[in-house]
Amino acid sequence: MSTAIRRTxxxxxxxxxxxxxxxxxxxxxxxxxxxxxxxxxxxxxxFIEVTGKSGDTSIxxxxxxxxxxxxxxxxxxxxxxDQGRPVxxxxxxxxxxxxxxxxxxxxxxxxxxxxTVKLADGTEYEAEVIxxxxxxxxAVLDIEADDLTTVxxxxxxxxxxxxxxxxxGNPFGLGGTVTSGIVSAVSRDIQSGPYDDYIQTDAAINxxxxxxxxxxADGDVIGVNTMIFSPGGGSVGIGFAVPSDLAQDVVxxxxxxxxxxxxxxxxxxxPMSDEIxxxxxxxxxxxxxxxxxxxxxxxADADLQEGDIIISFADKDxxxxxxxxxxxxxxxxxxxxxxxxxxxxxxxxxxxTVGNLADRST
Length: 362
Known about the structure:
Structural class: alpha+beta
Shape: globular
Strand content: 35-45%
CATH architecture of the largest domain: Beta Barrel
Low-confidence stretches: 10-27
Number of helices: 8
CATH topology of the largest domain: Thrombin, subunit H
Mean pLDDT: 84
Distance between the termini: 24 Å
Largest sheet: 6 strands, antiparallel, barrel
Radius of gyration: 23 Å
Helix content: 10-25%
Number of domains: 2
CATH class of the largest domain: Mainly Beta
């Protein structure tokens, strides 16, 4: 990933600001502005403060026995000055349930020792991390509270480029900040991971907006703000949000038991080439070509073979390798589904019992 793609969390080390790198129908702006909508949504957006420890102690721990560290540090100063020092970070989130379930980014709370949630009215709560999912950069927190203002999920599949978008969050630790813009693109793949399917927006998103909501005109959450493209560290009008259709499923799993159950097939795949598509009479390449089948995998048990072109899986069309990755992951482990493949020019339907990604051996 380009270093210009930046997570939008603000991190401070010993007081010095640092950048954490990583990773509707179109409508007119209301004549009176967004005041009424924002007044309704603001209480459901929270500000998150985390504390943790910096540095990797693996080098320090690997020093040979008898190494004269104390003497060297006495003469020349600390050898590992940053390790173990407190790190403070800021992010955003939003409330999904009246009793305190909150959505944010994984990178906001990852490795945190303490997580403090501050409501729009200034009330603070210590939060428990219920579960995290690094692959989609989502996390669920819980605070002991009642009768909280909540927001609801929207349908990101209905979002189109040009639709209006609102972001509310905690940029640079300033507190409740609202920005508006449009949806610049959908299904954006920025090569950050296997589940890239981002909504791109030009609503200003900055460090500290991580985990905050991206709203549509009705005040529904259509995305979770996660990254910005920023050569200089500030907003240049290119921000990315995890779409709500993906986030909603992941968050539901995390709220259930704190873990994610993902399907596993056990193949290495590549896009179909223009040459193969032409031979098969396709107007354009479609499907995912099996390059390798892992021994002992669900694919091997189902007799999927190298060279098979998967064009449908679990009753969903497969246009490219990204489609297959997401569709397989969405299948409940131990479920048997149909895989439609092109094999030596003929179409075949194969029964596949999907495994559990957490149990894979390769």
